[in-house]
Fold this sequence. Notes:
Layout: H1 3-8, H2 50-134, H3 139-158, H4 163-197, E1 205-215, E2 230-234, H5 239-253, E3 258-262, H6 265-274, E4 279-283, H7 287-293, H8 297-300, E5 301-312, E6 328-335, E7 348-357, E8 362-367, E9 373-374, E10 386-387, H9 388-391, H10 396-407, E11 413-418, H11 419-428, E12 432-436, E13 440-441, E14 447-448, E15 451-455, H12 457-465, H13 474-492, H14 501-511, E16 512-514, H15 518-531, E17 536-541, E18 544-551, E19 555-565, H16 567-581, E20 596-597, H17 602-606
Parallel strand pairs: 2-3, 2-4, 6-11, 8-17, 18-20
Antiparallel strand pairs: 1-4, 1-5, 6-7, 7-8, 9-10, 11-16, 12-15, 13-14, 18-19
Amino acid sequence: xxxxxxxxxxxxxxxxxxxxxxxRSDENGRPIPPKKRPVRYDASGKPIAPSSRNRxxxxxxxxxxxxxxxxxxSTTRTLAHxxxxxxxxxxxxxxxxxxxxxxxxKRRQARVSLLTVGIQxxxxxxxxxxxxxxxxxxxxxxxxxxxxxxxxxxxxxWLQRSPKARRVGLTVSVFFSALFLVGSIYIGKxxxxxxxxxxxxxxxxxxxxxxxxxxxxxxxxxxEDLASQRFGIQxxxxxENTDLTLQDISMKLGTQLNTLEYQSIPAQTEALYSGEIxxxxxxxxxxxxxxxxxxxxxxxxxVLDAFTYEQEVEESSKADIQVSMEPFSVYLSxxxxxxxxSLDNGxxxxxIIATVNPTTKQVLLTTVPRDYYVDLPFMKESDLPDKLTHAxxxxxxxxxxxxxxLLDVQLDYYVRINFSGFQNIIEAxxxxxxxxxxxxxxIDGKEFVKGYNDLNGYxxxxxxxxxxxxxxxxxxRGRNQMAMIQAMLDKIFSPTILxxxxxxxxxxxxxxxxxxxxxxxGDLVRMQLDDWAQWNIVSNSLTGYIADMPTYSYxxxxxxxxxxxxxxxxxxxxxxxxxxxxxxxxREPVKDVGLRYASDYPQVLARxxx
Length: 610
């Protein structure tokens, strides 16, 4: 049975009754006759039979529908194809854009990595050049730094082989670039400071200003008003500049000057005040000495004219000293001035001779009290001795020569610092911890305890300046000063110096000066870095007898408190210095007595009675 028969028969094979169409009725119940199909005609005008018409219409409809389906299918396929093509194009463009972005990102990363590596290489070169310029590291350290810089640059370049490794290399390169930059800044700052500190080293010129000073109420308005007047000059002090000034004045006025000579600056000043002379010729470096006795000198007098001279400073043999192999001595001077440190004026309140033997790694610190009663190098035999502190008023060269004559020692270099410099250095260090041998109070009431004291800059200055609180006065002050030096060295060599390094350098650059050449400072640093040896530091303080004596600077009419040298102690100090120079092992000297009163020792006073 085919499918057509199956549709006309039931499952038992019996024919199915025809399906009757339901009869439609109107609202009155009458059956509605079926609608007649419209009559269609063919081309000749004959009516088309319904059956034929239906088949034709059905065939045409079927063909139309088939054509429509084909057309729709074709259109759908075309649209789908076009959509697929468009989608593929979009996807291709998106993929190309994605790949382009990846390539651009890789190129940017490569450029950034290349730039970072370039910066690192440049900073490495700058760091190495600064190390060479500073010239303070042993050769093996320099070679080690060079090898490390080259190796590090090679590693960073090798890490550029892949994106992942490049990111690691970028991080490492940035870190070391920052490290090299900071290192270069620190080394550059150190080099700059050392250059400033050693500004007064070999050769060069020194400027001197000589003033012609009259009283404020003087009628003179110019040098021509003094042509026939009396000029007061020094007999021996600064005589070279004085003679040049007199010569220039004589040439300017066209006449020979009337001069009176004086043995001391106070005597010359008193002559001006008393009217014995009409004008005084004085080097401005000695003004501070006048102000000690006449605090209102600046307002009571005026400078009528002034002459400036540049003096050539001869090159010495300081550059020839092999400080890493030969013994040498340094004069450590602390003057009582504030502001910028100067070599030409200020009392020498701190006088320490550091004798260094680099072979035996020993340092001898010899402290000489500021009030030591000594002969100044330019004095005549008939002149009075003076306090050592007053030697600083005539320049640092005078202080050095005075100490050389006292202890038979050659002072190769000097280091000078003033009140401002010392206080600023302590502040830059972040304070220091110093050991005190006694409980005492300073003159302004600051109390110090026996043992360790944490001090700021101002307190440290009080600590090293105090002398009236001690029975031994200046001797104990000298010991406290050496204790402070030790405390400063401890702080400098501690790790905390890194946090205060730049501020320390700034302090050193303005309030600290030395004539030790930069090359010699480098030699000492290289020597220490080469062997890291421990040094034996020994201190010795000179003693004497307290007395009231007239001085060269203040004249015979006035007495000042001085310390008469203990000749046997001076001889022992000379022997100790020689022992250090000769390489003998030093031990801390044991002294049973400190300062004594000269009134209890007539034989001591007898030496100065004449």
